[in-house]
Amino acid sequence: MKISLLSDLHVEHFESFSSFQDKYEEKFHRKLLSTKLIEEGSDVLILAGDVANVKQESFKELLNDVSHRFKHVIYVAGNHEFYGNEYYSCMESMKQVCLEKKNIHFLDQSVVEIKDDETGEMVVFIGCILWSRVPEASKPFVGTSMNDYKVIKIQDNASTEPVNLTVNDTVKWFEEQVQFIEKQIQLAKQENKRAIIVTHNAPLTKGVSDPKYENSTTEFTKHLNTAFATDLRHLMGPPVIAWFFGHTHFSSRQCHNQTIVASNQLGYLLFGNEKNELYDEFWVFDTNHIDYSKYKQVSDHSTENNEHHATSAQTTTTSNKKKCLFM
């Protein structure tokens, strides 16, 4: 099975998908997914969040475009999908739009199994936003500095009016989603199936962001960075063959314990002020031909600390499993 990966397209910054494509062509001298190199080479496209806003027509335009180019599209939301929206209603709206296309699988703390035509096996895709484990000491910095907690609303049964999302909300979701991922990994292992995890937030805190942020020694940056990445190496290893993510606006490809950890993030195309040399829309991950020597190895003994690494960019409450099979 061959997989293409994209995230952080931020189409919501443009008036339409066509205007996004014009800007993309201006920078890369071609439109996104405009050639057959990708669609002929990949069975699955993964969209790892921060793609577009469901309130804008460009959301449907983008999904309609990719649904015709790939046999399967797997989509996990990022934090920006919820900007200017109420969290739960926005999540439901995205699910409904994706249901209009039978080959688009919106993963919200859920899984989908897709048949590998080369081997005949079913590959399990485990998806959720993830969010991050923000320590108590970092919560005040994250809560006041991240736009998530200013422009995302949340309305549950206990509130009569939507209120601002809080760091406590997202940390709670993070813990629930880690438990969900752990459970699905165990199920895949019991069923002797290979698994691929798709999240928006990063599952490593080294090598996933611009070094100028990652190696920062300022206390503010260290605190802020806890909202972008969490060290989840303990979840890596067989049966998980890959973990794809976004959020940091810094493309990277690494390996830990035979799990490929990779992102392919466009970033803020409209502003054009980010250095992202590894972004490559033609990058393809082949589940049956993995050359581990091509990936930077992440050591078991490296000192990762979720409180002390930075990134370059500024996330479902139910634990019920939703499983679909696709041949």
TrEMBL record:
Pfam annotation, one family: Metallophos
Range of residues in the leader sequence: none
Chain residue ranges for the region called Disordered: 301-320
One GO MF term: hydrolase activity
Domain of life: Eukaryota
Record-linked Gene3D superfamilies: 3.60.21.10
Residues in Calcineurin-like phosphoesterase domain copies: 1-249
Bias (Basic and acidic residues): 301-310
Protein name: Calcineurin-like phosphoesterase domain-containing protein
